[in-house]
Amino acid sequence: MRDLSAHDPTPVGHPIAGRVKLSSRLPGPEISSGALGAQAPQRAVPSRTNPYTPVRPLLVSGTASRGWGMAIQQGRSTPDPDQAEDLAEYIGMLGELRASAGMPSYRVLAKRVGPLVRPARVLPASTLVDVFKVGRRRLDLDLVLAVVRALGADEPQVDRWRAAYARIQRGTTSGGPAGVLRQLPGDLATFTGREDALARLLDAASAADRGGGGTVVVSAIEGMGGVGKTQLALHAAHELLRAGRYTDVQLYADLRGFDPERAPADPRDVLGGFLRALGVPAQHVPGGLDERAAMFRDRMHDREALVVLDNAADERQVRSLLPAGPACLVLITSRRTLADLDGAVVHHLDVFSRVEAVELLARLGGRERVAAEPDAASRVVEACGRLPLAVALAGARLRVRPAWSVDELARRLEHSALDALRVGGSSLESVFDLSLRGLEDAHRRLLLLLAEHPGEEFTAEMAAALTVVTPAEAERTLELLVDEQLVSSPRPGRYRFHDLIRAFVRRRAEALPAASREAALDRLLMWFFVTAEAASKFINPVVRVEPLPGPVIESPGFADYRAALEWYEVEWGNICSAIEAAAAKGRHEAVWKLTFVLVLYFTVCRRHDAWHRMAQLAITSAGILGDRLAVCRLLSGLGKSHILLGALDTARDHFKRALDLSRSLGEQRLQAQMLLNIGSTHSSQGEFTHAIACYDQALGICRELTTSDPRIAEVEAAALGNIGVAQFRLGRLDEALASHHLALDKHHLVGNRSNTTQVLENIADVQRLKGELTGALQTYRQALATRVELGDKHREADTRRDIGDVLHALGLTSDAREEWLQSLELYERLSYTELAEKISQRLASAAP
Asked: Are 759 and 643 in a shared domain?
C-alpha cells in the first residue's frame, strides 16, 4: 500500500488515492495465513511506477510435462521450418518441435539451453516461455537455435531453422520494419546507383565478421546536403536486414545537425528515447548523459544491433550514442567530416555521376521520354548539379507534366534565378522554385502554411487545421506533395520536410500576408488543445480547463484509454514544439492552457525535463496575463513532478506557494488540493500524523462546500483514501479499511477507474494483513481485471504478484506459480530486475 497522491498519474493540482504495496515487504511463498494476520505494518518501500507501454497482455502458453528425453522421440514427425510463411507459423513449429521431443518443462529446458547460448548463462524459465509465444514480433535467433539444439536437432536441422528465420525476417522488413525496436524508415524503391559506395559499406560490416573483433563497427557517410547520404545509409541497412543480419534491434535517430530552424538533437535526449525503446521505463532512465550512455552500452552489449544516426552535427554529438557490443553496426551520416571519430570508417559521398543522375531522372520521369532526348536529359541533370535531391525533384516535375518535353524542363531550370543554395554554378533553389510554381494554388497554399508547423512531423489533421480544409482533402494534397518530392512520408499517415526544403518553404511563406500565417498558427494551436483535451478525458474525466478562445475546431474522438495515451506518446514532441512556438509568438493563454492539459499525460510518461521546461514557460505566460489562478494550478503541477523525482522539500515549497495563492484568491477547492499534496509529501517522509492532519483539513474544506462539482468529490475521495493509507502505516487496520471503503464509494461516483482500482488494491492489502485471504483474493482479482483493461503493466505485475502470494498462502501452489510467472514476465519486460529476482525466489522455493 502506498500514498498515490505522491506517486500516481494525476492532473495538475489534482490529488488521488494512495497505496502502499504490502507484498513489497512481505516474505515470499513461505507466507502463511497466520503470518499474514500477525504481520505488523512497516514503512513502505518507495514506489516504482512506470509509463504506459502499449504492449499486449502476456499469457503463459503451453503446459509442462515431467520426464523427457533430449533426443527427438522416435516415431514422431518433426516440423519443417521451411514451410513457415511468417513468424507466427515459425514459432508454432518451434512448439511442435518441443512436443516431438516429449514436451519438456520450461524449467528443465532452460537448464539445457543455458550452456548453449552465447555467452553461456543461467536462463530463467520465463525466458523460455517467451520464446514459444505465438504473436511475438521478433526473436533472439541465438536463443532460438540453442533451443533447437537442446530439443535434439542436429546441425543440418539447426541450419534449416536459421535459414528459415532469415527468410521470414527478410519478408518482414522488406515493407518497412515494424515494432518499437525496428525504427528504420522504409527503403526507397527509387534508390539508384551508388554501387561502389554500397559495396564499401557492406564490406565494412563483413570485415568485422571475418576479423572477429571485439569493438563496434562504425561507418560514417559524409557529404553535402541533398547528396543522398540518408538514402544510402538506409538502403545499406535494409540490404543487411534482407541478408538476415542485425535482426535483433534497429534504432534510428535524426540528430538535426544542420537544421536551419532547430537546434541539434541533445545526445542525452536521444539516449533517453533509445532506452525507452529498449524497454527501460521512463523513471529508470538516468538523468545524466554519462549514466544514460553507460546504460545504453549495457543494454546493447549482447545484441546484434544496427544503429543509424542521421544528420550528425559533429563527433561530439555522436560519441555518447555509440554502443560497445561487438555485434553492433553504426551508420552515421553528416555534412561534416567525422574522420576524428575513433575507429570510424569514413565514406565520402559526392554528387551522382552523369549516368547515375540520368538513370534517376529516367526512373522518375519516364524512361522513354528521357531516352528520346538524351542531350536534354544531360542538361537537366547538370542544371541540378547532379545532386540527387534536385534530380529527384526535377524527375517528379517531369512525371506530372506529360505535355512537357525534357528540353522544356531543361530550359526552365536553366533560366531560374540563382540563390544562396548552390551546387557549383547551379542553384538548388531553382529546382524547388520550379516545383512550387508547378503546384495548383490550393496545394501551394497548404505547402506554404505548413511552414507554420513548429514540429518535426505533421499529419493530415494538422495540415487541415492550418488550411481550413477537411482532413481527407489535406491527405490528398500531402500525398501529392510526396509524389512531388516536396514532402516525405516516413510511415503511413505521417509527413515531414527535408531540412533544405523546410528552409525554402519557410522563406517563401514570408510572402504570405502576416494575418494569414498568424491565423494558421492559431488554428493549429487550437487543434492541439482540443485534441489533447479529448485525450485527457480518458486519463482523468474530472479535471478540465476553461476553453481556449479562438477558431472553432472539431474535437476528434478516441476509442479508449489506450488510444488516448498512444496519441500523446506519438505527438509529445509536436505538442512541446507548439507550446514553445506559442510562447515565442506571444500566445500566452494558449501556452498555459495547453501545458495544463499536457500534464495529464506527463504524469503517466514521467518526462520530467520536458515538463519542467513547459511549466516554466506556462507560469511565465500566466504571469504576463496576470492570471494568478493559472499560476497556482501550474505550481501544483511542478510540485507533483518534484515528488515523482523524490525532491520532497522542493515539491512542498511549490505546494505552499500555491496554497498561499489559493487562499488569497478565495479558491477553497484549490486550498483543499494543496493541503492534500502537502500531506503527500509528509506521508512520503514517514510523517503519517502530520499527513493525516493535512488530509483532515482538506476533507473539512470539501465538506463545507455544498457544490456538486465532481472535482470536489474527487478531492474528498483522495483525502479519505490517503487517510486510510496513513492509518494502515500506523497499524490502525480497522480504521484504514473503513476509510478505504468510504473512498471507494466516492471514486465510484466520480468515475475515475484508475483511482477506484487503486483503492480496491488498498482494501485487499488490509484484508491480507487481517488474515481475510479469500476476501483479499476476490478484491485483487477485481482490481486486476481493470489493470489489464487499462494496459497498466506495472500495476498488473504488482497485482499478479499479490494474487500469487495469497493463492500460495491458501495452499493453491500451482495457481500461485501461474500468477507469479506472469508477474515475472512483466517485471523482466519492464526491466525491474530487483522485483523480478524476488519473484524468481518465490518460484524457486515453491517448485512443484
From this structure: yes
pTM listed for this prediction: 0.60
- At 510-524, the pLDDT tens digits run 999 999 999 999 999
Same domain? For 399 and 548 the reply is no
Identify whether residues 629 and 717 lie together within a single domain.
yes
Sign of CA pseudo-dihedral 652, 655, 661, 666: negative
For residue 51, being part of any structural domain is answered with no
Strand pairing report for 329-334 and 217-222:
parallel
pLDDT value at 447 more than 90: yes
On whether residue 4 sits in a domain, the answer given is no
What is the CA angle 317-318-319, rounded to 5?
105
**Among candidates 484, 262, 209, 208, which has minimal Cα distance to 365?**
484
In a 13 Å sphere around the CA of 318, the CA atoms on its Cβ side amount to 33
- For cell 489559493, the residue is 662
Residues 257-278: tens digit of each pLDDT:
877 667 888 999 899 889 888 8
**116: how many CB neighbours lie within 10 A of its CB?**
16
Which residue, among 788, 732, 729, 721, has the nearest Cα to 758 in the 3D structure?
A: 721
Q: Using an 8 Å Cβ cutoff, are 685 and 663 in contact?
A: no
Distance CA 655, CA 13 (A): 9
CA distance 432 to 411: 15
For 15-29, how does the pLDDT look when each residue is reduced to its tens digit (9 = 90+)? 333 444 433 322 232
Which region among 190-204, 248-262, 541-555, 639-653 has the lowest average model confidence (pLDDT)? Answer: 541-555
Pairing status of strand 422-423 against strand 426-427: antiparallel
Grid cell 485483487 is found at: 780
Q: Is 121 exposed, middle or buried, given 0-12, 13-18 or 19+ CB atoms closer than 10 A?
A: exposed
CA–CA distance, 622 with 405 (Å, rounded to integer): 59
SS3 state of residue 423? strand
Domain containing residue 484: CATH number: 1.10.10.10
Q: Which of 33-42, 168-177, 610-619 is predicted least confidently?
A: 33-42
Domain that holds residue 490: 441-512
Burial category of 342 from C-beta neighbours within 10 Å (exposed 0-12, middle 13-18, buried 19 and up) = exposed
- Cis peptide before 119, with omega less than 30 degrees from 0? yes
Dihedral pair phi/psi, residue 673, rounded to 5°: -65, -45
H helices present in 367-439, as ranges: 367-372, 374-383, 388-399, 406-414, 428-437
Residues 380 and 343 in one domain: no
